[in-house]
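Task: encode each sequence below as structure tokens.

Item 1
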Amino acid sequence: MVDVVVGVVPYVPSGSMAFLPRDTFAYESALAYDGGDDGTSILRRVIRESPGFLRPGGALVLELGGDEANALRSDFERHGFGEVVVFEDDDGDVRGVEATFFRSGPAMIR
């Protein structure tokens, strides 16, 4: 078991891929960015599978954006994560989350 799982996985909604800068794809394929219809497909998988690696009290840290933190609220709760802290950049845009694994209990997103 580990204390921290960190993930930078594809989280761009499929419909938003066309809005990424073209140079984004100079060295990486679209697979590195495409997170499915709402951008949460792979994020949900990481949330579902990370409890198999985390000790109680451990943290899951994920890069994400938009309203994905709120969209994932029930996933965090269902898979045993408690407090979920949302990180924003200087412009107030959501950039990531840190979720604490407790095995049970409701997620509190702040």
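Item 2
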Amino acid sequence: MIELLNISKRYGATQVLKGVNLMVKEGEFVSIRGKSGVGKTTLLKIMGLLETPDKGEVKLFGKTASGLSDDEKSELRLRHIGFVFQFFNLIPSLTVLENIELPLALAGINKYERRRRAHKLLKYFGLTGLAERFPDTLSGGERQRVAVIRALANSPKIILADEPTSSLDDENSELLMELLREINRERKVTIVLTTTDLYEKLSTTRDYVLKEGRLIER
């Protein structure tokens, strides 16, 4: 699903990534740990074709990213990759239902079908009661779960989650992790998650630490 070959990235005088190699197979749930500022977000952005490495090669679904046009990269992200960000990134002026519909609208899905899919997702995950509420009326845990469900709207093959539990308390962090485990287990979605927690036990397929620009499997 994802292959990183000798990825390097520099910002000014700082070498953030130094020859990172990673292969993620279909159906895996991979965690990448590391302190703040070590390059975890940069690595996820490179995986999701939002940034280009200075050196090295990215392959998604067997396709070499450097051979894709910007439009092809955008289409790949829209159709096959779901992003979950640290601070939710929900649109405050849209209801929960409308936020989940947004990626479907961008993909050109008609209003009736996108509403049906959004309702179905909320029902599946037991959050139907939130449909008509606005993000600022939700708790942090509810907002992050809605953000995960929105990432599922276009039935992606991969979810890239950037420190999704960092702003949540322990109870909501566990609820979110259980939601991601369910998505991985029941829907067979491949997940790559980053976290600043170096010690918490995570029930992921593989566990890595990003340190001094290099990825080390635990």
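Check on item 2: Residues 28-50+69-217 form a domain with the Rossmann fold fold (CATH 3.40.50.300). The two ends are 21 Å apart (CA to CA).
End of task.
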